[in-house]
Amino acid sequence: MKRLLCLLFLFWIPGLAWAQGGNILLEEGQIFRPTTGRQAMVSSAESISTRIGVEVLRRGGNAVDAAVTMAFVEAVTLPRAGNLGGGGFLLLRTPQGRIRALDFREVAPRRADRDMYRKPSGEADPELSTHGHLSAGVPGTVAGLARVLEEHGTLSLREAIEPARRLAEEGFPVSPTLAADLAGLAPRLRRHPASAQIFLPGGHPPAPGDLLVQKDLAWSLSQLQEGGAQAFYRGEIARRLARDMARNRGLIDLQDLAGYKAVWREPLVGTYRGYEIYSMPPPSSGGVHLVQILNMLEGDDLAALGQNSAATLHLLAEAMRAAYADRSEWLGDPDFIRVPLAHLLDKGYARDLRRQIPQDQARRSRDVRPGSFPGWESEETTHLSVVDPQGGAVSLTYTLNFSYGSGVVAAGTGILLNNQMDDFAAAPGHPNAFGLVQGRRNAIAPGKRPLSSMTPTLVTRDGEFVMALGSPGGPRIISTVLQVLLNVLDFGLNAQEAVSRPRIHHQWLPDELRFEQGLSPDTLGLLERMGHHLAPGTATGQCALVRRRPDGILEGGIDLRRPGSAEGY
Question: Quick check: 80 and 62 in contact, CB under 8 A?
Fold first, then answer.
């Protein structure tokens, strides 16, 4: 593996191919062919990352090696979401079949307090919680990637970082999508000199085909190669981060950075029609509500009702409504509060919720309250799924929260910082930037991890691998993963069809059923007559899916809603 790094760089740069973005959806009746392979498969939101991940596998690396290498690459090539300055979750299946869940979510700085973003009126000030240094939580990405690589990888950290370092040092061609992103965000990036210097060279966003060079980020990556994760949390990177925070009224200091830990948690597991569904436990709400909704739907014959029929979509919307109501009340960081997981995941509780759903009439969200138990994230996330020849699999979701996070690059590091503090309930009972109403259990506290919707998921049957999937999309992550999973397990779609079909979303509040283009007018008319408040929406999520068919062939699917690719062999 020692010569892997230079070989990788030579391998993929000459063959760059950029997917084009857009709200491209699969109309009913269309057939999309998935990428197939017999040994290994990678699916991600960034084409350079995918190609590097596949080459790591071809040269003997395992799923963890590929996933970690890809995550570092996306910190360079997908700056809106890939990161060193954010956090996320990782679900791992070892070749022996063990499932592990790694939490490297950001934490609130020790000087944070529950009222730090409140206006005198008591409402949250979204400007403070979403922009600038004050909106950043203590990053966890570096700690998480380093830990999983050390415990389950075969590459050294130096090897896993080298492709990313060279991309940052030497630059890569700007895609049309990246050029459009930077042009749209230029006013925000101009507010921060270190950000503008990198992403607006000469004061203007780069054009498609220009080289994007990130020398400061290359320096940070080389520091990690020399000193490991400690370089980020206790070394010169930490000192530069803390210094930049102090100069700009941020809260993160050296003590916050030195105290950060990535945490192994017990994976959340449910069952659905004979399959085992593994996902992240709190502080992610994604796994809880994915399993909760599946429990509500298990008693219905969705295949007979039809994929994306009005009857099926009505059931999905009402199940989502109930689950998101519970999210607002019961979820938070389990290190700080008691989360009633056993009750939320109980199939009997799900049957009670299902009985409350009228067959052909939408409820009003004001009439749907969180459950009562006795005794008691951004649109611009990114996800990658990897399966290796040994039977290992990784489902990894990580994020800066908003596109380009807080907009802040910490001076001298090239590292974009998250604005994850907005994922706390800055003012319990008031909506955050994604419209989610959150409760006191997700209030800000020093060292606490904010609630997340990230839903990295693994599916097995009798312990054998079936699927790895996940998506970006803020609160729409849960509904995206849910519908893709149903498209495979209930409706028998292949991987590419499953991620491409139009989707819906309901999150309790606001009381509206969002839908993508591609659903038939007749279906929408029936939903409206049932009483659903319909709201046309933009593309929802970008699922990266790898599945193993019953005949053993691997399929890779990647949403066409944004650029990305799947590749295998």
Answer: no
